[in-house]
Amino acid sequence: MAAEEQALQAPRSYRNSLWKHVRKEWKLYSFIVIPVVYFLVFKYLPMLGNIIAFRKYRGGPNLFGTEWVGLHYFRMFMKDPTFWRAFYNNLFLSITYLIVRFPLTLIFALLLNEIRKLRLKKFVQTVSYLPHFMSMVIVAGMVKEMLSLTGPINSLLGNLGMEKIPFITVPEWFPAIYIGSGIWQGLGWGTILYLAAMTGINTDLYEAARVDGANRFRLAWHVTIPGILPTIMTLLILDIGGIMGSNFEKILLLYNPLTYETADVISTYVYRMGIGGASGGSNGAAGGNFSFATAVGLFEGIIGLILVTTANFISKKTTKSSLW
Amino acid sequence: MKATPSYRAFQVFNALVMTLVVLLTLYPFVYLVAQSFSSEAAVYAGKVSFFPVEFTTQTYELVLGKPDFYRYYGNTIMYAVLGTLISVTATAVLAYPLSKEKLRLNKFFIPFVLFTMYFSGGLIPNYVLVAQGLHLRDTIWALIIPGAISAFNVILVKTFFSSLPNEVEEAATVDGLGVYGIFTRITLPLSKPILATMVLFSMVAIWNDWFSASLFLQSKEKWPVALYLRQIIDSAVNSTEFGATDASYAQIAATIKSSAMLLTSLPVICIYPFVQRYFVQGMMIGAVKG
């Protein structure tokens, strides 16, 4: 009896003190109310909305669908070769992009860090961050202009006596265009967290290494890189988590039926199936298959969540840096 | 540190790399400028590479002569101002209590916010919610509200708030300021750097947004300029609107496209060098802890 009472009392007293705490700090907690409602409606409700992956929904006000269909839509897309093409393209584009971009960004950050003239460093940073702030519409437009048959790259090929290439319509060129434009737009901005981490490294470490006779290369290798390792790991975890994602807007703006073969990824596939040409885009397709498209999107989201969790776990075990 | 020959060589190499990066980054802009001031014939002959050929301002006259263009530009400015106001206010209001360690429920609220960084409802459920559930289709709210608060920005602002010295708030409490007074009269004014960063992030995001407009806005007169630009680039706008002598020209001239691209990005390009430090500063603040 006594033990039972104690067991009942512990949570109750906790609840009482919590209630007191909330009453005492209610003004601070009042800040949270509207944003929390916002998060519930605009972030968590759509997560629940994924239930239509298991229920039939063909538009209309009944947001959670009309009847259970189980894994019907999952079986359907698993049998669709277009899905597997998008799945493969997605992995291929993301992984090659990651392999190219990750070391390039790190090297660029290390090189920026070696510039001794502060004004020069600032200038290079300012210029290289600029493309990050351009609308994807502009980036895609630039890519098309640069690669058009009358554009500068084809002019250069022409001058070199080579044949002109209609890049935008050749599937084989799409991965290079995707990666190249990504590097162009993101290389500079990608260094920013590394540079922030570098300024946080204790200068005594450099002094000590110098006394030991380390040259610049060794300083970078033995002091800078270990100093920014947590940042490297954080970014790597996030990037690995993003492998099932892609630069959706860019692909939507750059691909066309001629290049679907290499350019269609999961998110663009979801877009065509779910929304399609309904919004006046030139990438017309059926659209309106909300349940089907949601099932594909959910599949992508869950794999992404598993990837980021796994990468985080491995990083925690091996390098002690993790996101949570 | 003495400059050894190998270090000298490295410096030269580094300078070359930096020069190359700067040139490659700027070249597409240079090309657009050159193209936009060139004659259509010169562009199609592939003669334009660095400088305008057969200089003309005709394309600008055409684009700027269209009332539509100003309307879309005006829409974008309105969306950017209103959206930024909502977004920054909401972000700061949420970040403030999250920055207070004494709030015990934060151990629930912080993961609640953070989780949305790693998992989202996805395109279709979001679309269904906004268009069919909340009936926001064809309203500016469909562009502004769904993306108003991002967990990432909340964390940046929260980190900044946490870095403010406690003593200031304590002194204000002694002086008789309440929680709301402290927030609006002490914390916010002290947080101008991070708020400036948030304002710019939000402005740029809305300025550049074309996708949510393409999803939700059916009425063309409500379009932001980025979506209009997209239609021009895709030649989805009737080419006769842009001076093609007959409609058989399916394509809008590349010169028109490049001048429209430049006109659309002009505010960002012009303001960017002066406010760049706020972007960087904001990221740095977040990175210290994040």
From TrEMBL, chain A:
It is a multi-pass membrane protein. One of its GO terms (cellular component) is plasma membrane. One of its GO terms (biological process) is transmembrane transport. The chain crosses the membrane at residues 28-45, 91-112, 173-198, 219-244, 290-314. The keyword Transmembrane helix applies. Keywords: Cell membrane, Membrane, Transmembrane, Transmembrane helix, Transport. It holds the Pfam family BPD_transp_1. Coiled coil: none annotated. The keyword Cell membrane applies. Gene3D superfamilies: MetI-like. Residues 87-311 form the ABC transmembrane type-1 domain. It is found in: Cell membrane. SUPFAM superfamilies: MetI-like (SSF161098). Belongs to the binding-protein-dependent transport system permease family. This is Sugar ABC transporter permease. It comes from Cohnella xylanilytica. The lineage of its organism: Bacteria, Bacillati, Bacillota, Bacilli, Bacillales.
UniProtKB/TrEMBL annotation, chain B:
It is found in: Cell membrane. The chain crosses the membrane at residues 12-34, 77-96, 108-128, 140-161, 194-217, 249-275. It comes from the Bacteria. One of its GO terms (biological process) is transmembrane transport. Its main location: membrane. The keyword Signal does not apply. InterPro entries: MetI-like, MetI-like_sf. It is a multi-pass membrane protein. Residues 73-268 form the ABC transmembrane type-1 domain. The keyword Transmembrane applies. CDD domains: TM_PBP2. Signal peptide: none annotated. GO terms for cellular component: plasma membrane. Keywords: Cell membrane, Membrane, Transmembrane, Transmembrane helix, Transport. Belongs to the binding-protein-dependent transport system permease family. This is Carbohydrate ABC transporter permease. It comes from Cohnella xylanilytica. The lineage of its organism: Bacteria, Bacillati, Bacillota, Bacilli, Bacillales.
